[in-house]
Structure formats: structure tokens, C-alpha cells
Specification:
By secondary structure, this protein is an alpha/beta fold. Helix content is 22%, strand content 30%. It is built from three helices and nine strands; from the N terminus they run H-E-E-E-H-E-E-E-E-E-H-E. Helix 1 runs parallel beside helix 2.
Length: 138
């Protein structure tokens, strides 16, 4: 089933007209946490290959699962030119002592240009009286 989904994604990106841009969204991103891979080791390279082939059509990859806001780069010795950001949005739940929050994306030109993103976190504001978001302009 997962191989079928990855084949579908490849076909959609391959058949998309020039200039059509995508934001890929998923719950569990590729990668490793605490020495354990999130994805089956045989499937992750297929996904990274797809990203590398069509990164000119992909604005960014959105994920979650780890309950904290982060930006990651899908580094791979097999695909050294892969340069797409993977943005992980924080959880809105305080479970596992998380800092509840959410992400706001500002996008222009349809989905072709990510202009600004913000992770808004509860505890930074309510406890530390710090600004309630962290921001990076691409």
C-alpha cells in the first residue's frame, strides 16, 4: 500500500505542468528520533528520490509527530543535491510535557512562494513573558 502511495506521488509530481507548485503534508516525516527511524528503511530512499527529482515543484514538506516545532533538512548521501526544508509543526497538546503551539505559514502566488512562517508556543508567552513566536524568513 505504501509503495502505491509513493508511486502515486511520483506520478502526480511528474505529470504536473511546469509552474505548478506543491506543499507536501504528512503526519510522520522521514528521519530518525532517538536512534529509531520513523519510516521503513526500504521506503525512505524512494521518497527522498521523489523529492530530489521534483524539488523544483515542491515549496516545502510539512510534518508533525514529534510534538515540537522544528525545521529539518533531509540530508542523504544518496541525494546530496536535495535542498527542501521539512517543517515540523508543534502539537497543540501538552502531553509528554510539550510546549503547546501551532504554525502559521504566509504564502504568496498560490503556493509558489513561502514568505514567512511562525511557530507560536504557549509557555514562552505565558510563563517567560517572551515573544510568543519564533520566526525565520526563508
Amino acid at each position: 500500500m505504501v509503495q502505491d502511495q509513493l508511486a502515486w506521488l511520483y506520478t502526480v509530481l511528474q505529470d504536473a505542468p511546469e509552474g505548478k507548485m506543491f506543499i507536501l503534508s504528512m503526519h510522520i516525516p522521514p528521519g530518525i528520533m532517538l536512534k529509531e527511524p520513523f519510516w521503513n528503511r526500504s521506503l525512505e530512499p524512494i521518497f527522498l528520490y521523489t523529492l530530489s527529482q521534483f524539488q523544483s515543484k515542491i515549496v516545502l514538506v510539512l510534518g508533525a509527530h514529534i510534538h515540537s516545532g522544528e525545521i529539518k533538512a533531509p540530508l542523504s548521501s544518496n541525494f546530496p543535491d536535495l535542498a527542501l526544508p521539512i517543517m515540523l509543526s508543534p502539537s497543540t497538546s501538552p502531553i509528554f510535557f510539550n510546549n503547546p503551539g501551532y504554525t502559521i505559514l504566509d504564502i504568496e502566488d498560490g503556493v509558489s512562494k513561502l514568505v514567512h512562517w511562525r511557530h507560536l508556543q504557549l509557555y514562552q508567552y505565558s510563563i517567560g513573558r517572551m515573544p510568543s513566536f519564533s520566526t525565520i524568513k526563508p
